[in-house]
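The pair is quoted verbatim as follows:
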Amino acid sequence: MRAVVQLVSKAAVTVEGKIIGQIKAGLVVLLGINSKDTEQDAKFLADKIANLRIFPDEKKLMNLSVLDTRGDLLVISQFTLFGDCRKGRRPSYSEAAPPEMAKALYHYFIKEAEKLGIRTATGKFQAMMEVSLINNGPVTLILDSKKHF
């Protein structure tokens, strides 16, 4: 499971011209699910993201987590994070989980984040979405539950 995590002052996701999810200060999480992922991967990443110390403290040092700041998450399903561009000019998505499996693990990740006490907004699974955000820092991290990077 992969996540691109961005520290934001606000963000929103729109489907067919309507805002379906939005947050104030917190994190935008673009979540990609691999065909070999399990609930353990989702639980690992939810905990890792919740406890990442990337928010500035009173000295402007990155010492606080989204839990510490009582920030929000905006979680967007993003199968393209498993696009393999090593051959040819068109990405292969053969490593991405099939839709039913991905949807179940996407919702499991969201439930795990909510269990940790984080208010969570979402996009719409398998929909064409427009995501707008104001990235602070900018702070953007890439996480992988299999620790590839």
Q: What stands out?
A: The two ends are 12 Å apart (CA to CA).
